[in-house]
Structure formats: structure tokens, C-alpha cells
Amino acid sequence: MGMFQKVFSKFAGAIGSALKLRFLSGYTPTFTPFGDNTYESDVVRSTIDAIARNAAKIKAKHVRGKGGSIGGAIERLLSVRPNPKENAYIFLYKVITQLLLRSNAFILIDRADAMERYRVRGFYPVDCVQAEMLETQNERFIRFRMKQGQTYTVPYADVIHLRRFYYSDSDFGSSNEKPLLPTLELIHATNQGIINAIKSSAFVRGILKFTQNLNPADRKKQTDDFINDYLNPENGGGIAATDVKADFTPLNNDPKMIDAKQMALIEQKVYKYFGVNEKIINSSYNEDEWNAFYESVIEPIAVQISLETTVKVFTENEQSHGNEIVYEANRLQYASVKTKLDLMQMVDRGAMTPNEWREAFNMGPIDGGDKPIRRLDTAEVTTKPVKQTTPKGGEEEDDDDNGDA
């Protein structure tokens, strides 16, 4: 039994009556993923990869209130190795890929038993072929059907559920099938047309008509000799000669193919569907284009993962004390060199620490670099006026003196 099956099996005893669950509304919400076949398209795969490989860079932090990261076991799991088989980057890459392909992604939370106070031991992405939402009067469950045929039912409270295109279904995100499939069929037909156009060069390129009757063996020999002598690519002369025994009539083969501009328009439909452009795919973006991509595509994913993980990992009491999981990225790493250099003013004014500024340049921390510094001419503003010292031998000015003699 693999590690993933062991995590599921611990729920078996607690949900022994899973088959007796009632559907309160009389309707069973069911999710059947569509999208695995679309991943075979090079346009879809490159688009999703561009999003997933960048979004997987976000890092989880366990924060409390307005303070910074407090570390701990949960943060270490989410930011280093959520489970024995996957590091944090691969884990997020897979989850985000599933979300984009299927409009739904599931992460199972592995908890210890009561003896260990139900501490979180790991996070596992669920790769299922079907999911059903089950409901009792007091609790909700979700039943997964796996590719190998196994069926597992677990409490919905222990599943981090991410959704995309959440509209018509009350429990699951809408499928990509109807809006995306016509474009993928068009791309497939275009690719097949190009392949067939290339293959057509091997078809009949002319008719060799003999002026006298020949038996089949002689006719084939004469034809083969003509092809080898004049239609062979190694014949660089480009001239063919015949005598009165045969006439050669060329056939003009002009296959029609879609041009580059039309192909680009079709690919743009896929890019727009996932909210990216060609520069993001080719990694040729500038600072402003990256910021737009981050704010419109990556940040919404990070916000959803943060909120859902917080609710599913912490109890209501822990949340009331300010505990939450926040996924964020160091966007300054993608800023231009000029922008990074201009941030020195933020360091001078104590808004950034020297190590935070160095991190933007991918440089290591220095001793004392986590302490904010401030220029002498940017002292804190206080409500009490600073008393000025009177120079030796001089007279102290009266602040109440209005200048009257």
C-alpha cells in the first residue's frame, strides 16, 4: 500500500457508514474532470506550463495577526515538502495545473489521531476521475473515484478545494469542455492539414504516357527508370528528356495551408482563455507586463489557496487569534534593475531592510541586515518639540516672544 492509500485508509473506520449517506437536496453534485486530453495540445500545455511554473514560486507563510511569519511545522510542510514524494514547488505546480485543466483541484490534509492532537502531517494532491459531494445533516463528505478504480470517501473539512469558473454548479467549477474544445479541434485540424500538405509532395507528380503498348513488367521498368533518372532529388540538373516512346505530363500540386497570421489568431484564443499573452509564454515580458500577469493570473490563485488553506487547516478558535496561511511571492525579483536601484530610498527611510533589498538582487543576507536603518534627516516625528540647546555664551530665544520691543 502506497503512502497516498495509507492516508485515505485512516478515514475508513470513521466513515464506515459512507454508503448510507443521504442526499438532503435529492441531487448529488458530481464532478467528472475534462482536460487531460487537452493537455496533449502543445498550445494548451505551453500556456498552462507558463502559469504553473511561475505560480508555483509563491511561498506559504504562517502568520498571526499583523505580525510577520511565525514559522512552525505547518509552514515548513507547505513551503518545503508537503508530502514524502513532492517538494513544495512540484506540489504547487501539479495542483495549479489540475486547477487550470479541470477547473477543480483537491488537496487532502493528512492529520494525526487524537493522541497527537490532530496535528497536520502532510498535504496530498488528489488525482481523481470523479468526485461526488455527499451530505448528512451535520457534515459534508466528498467521495473520490481514482484512476485505478478505488473509491474513497473523506470529510470535506479535510479537503482543500480550489475552483475556477465557479458559476452554475453549487459545488464545483465549470468544465473547460464547451468553451475550449472547438478551438482545440480547429488547432488539431490545422496541424493535420500541415502534415497532409507535406505528405502530398510524395504523391503523383506527373503522368508518363507511353505511345506503344507495353506489358506490365516493361511499363513498370520504364516508369522506375524515369523516376530514378529524373525525379530523384539527387538529380541536380532539373531537366528531363524523353523520346517518341513516352510523353510526360506534369501535375501541379498546390496544397492549401493556413498562413502564419491565421494560426497566430487561433493560438491567441487559447492564450486569452487562460489570461496570458505570447510574451508570457515566451518569457519575453517586461516589468509592466509581468506585473499585469501577476496581478491578474497568479495573485488570484494565491489568494484562493491562502483562504482555503487557512479555513481547512486552522480551527475557528485558531483563526480568531489571527492564524492564517498566506501565499506570496517576491515580485521585486522581476523588477528592472533601475527599479531595484531606486528602492535604495526605501532602505534609507526604514521602509525596507538591507537584506530585503539585497534579496531583490538575488544576493545573500548580511549580518545586521534585518534591522531597519534610517538617515539622520528622516527622524521620527514626535508630538513634543525638540528642545534646542543654547550655544555657550549666547542667549536662549523665548518661543513666546513675538518680536515686540
From TrEMBL:
Ranges of Basic and acidic residues composition bias in the record: 368-378
Region Disordered, residue ranges: 362-405
A Pfam entry, by short name: Phage_portal
Stretches assigned to coiled coil: none
Domain of life: Bacteria
Low complexity bias: start-end ranges: 381-392
Compositionally biased residues, Acidic residues: 395-405
Protein known as: Phage portal protein
Organism classification: Bacteria, Bacillati, Bacillota, Bacilli, Bacillales
